[in-house]
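hiii, so i know i said id send this last week but things got crazy w the move. better late than never?? heres the sequnce for the chain we talked about at the cafe, plus the structure i predicted for it. fair warning i was half asleep when i ran it
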Amino acid sequence: MSQRYDAVVVGGGHNGLVSAAYLARAGLSVLVLERRHVLGGAAVTEEVFPGFHFSVCSYVVSLLRPEIIRELDLPRHGLEILPLDGTFTPMPNGDHLWRTSDHAQTRREICRHSPVDAEAYDEYAKAMVEMARFVKPILSMVPPDPFSFDLGGFRDLAGLGQRFRRLSRGQQHSLLQLMTSSAADLLDQWFETDVLKATMSASGIIGTFLGVRSPGTAYVLLHHYMGEIDGAFRSWGFSRGGTGAISLAIAAAAREAGAEIRTEAKVAQVKIRGGRATGVVLEGGDEVDASLVLSSADPRVTHSGSSPPGDTPNTPNVSTVDWSKIMNAGTFR
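okay and structure toks below
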């Protein structure tokens, strides 16, 4: 049995669901195929023990783009974010460091360990916020296609260069350092207290499979300064109902827009014809034809399926999900 859709999204993780929602809002017929019984991918909440539900992978929220929350009206679909009050770091000697959402209280706590670090903490936060405000708009930019005649992307890139030139020399140096150095090296320049540096460096390695002295992890520190909740910059929170509630809210918005979502529907193969993806084959043998195939799975899983004789499975026409491309397309505004 074969079915036809404008777009098929492989994987019901939160990225795939966001893409499906925007495609459906643009008037396309969309099908999301999730191999598991539950939606969310890494943003999932499951009943690990009877009566106890856990956010088994992702556990806090802040970097979910506010325009996505607003445009998909996620609060109406059940999204509720509870502010994260603070972090607690125990020390081997029985002492601790407790950073809270109350800046004055956090400063007093740091001062208890090091008055010098308490003074540096304010300057560090100011510098990071300045850099985050510069970098944050890049998250919504579409990289220019060097083989395209569309000059819009290159104008955006030129505008970014102009913004960089308007930074002070010190800010330019800080930005380049953040893009290339490690979290440990950066924090060593600002602070002297190990417990403070250990606490803050954790934000530089989350999700990276790197160590705190790996080059590039300083940018991850900066990246975590870009989060916001309800317009409050640098805020973090928990989703009521677990992280999976975010995915379910996005799925509800996608369904409302007309997207079809199936669980326990494993994709066995991406169909390739003439070097282009033309649909997918499910594990049970059913086929789905589509003009566009997107994958929210990782590249290894996406390209591991077999293909018809004469074609290569590693086709570049199978798109990994990039919501910014969908949101910035003129027809989707």
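btw The chain has a mean pLDDT of 85. thought thatd interest u
miss u guys!!
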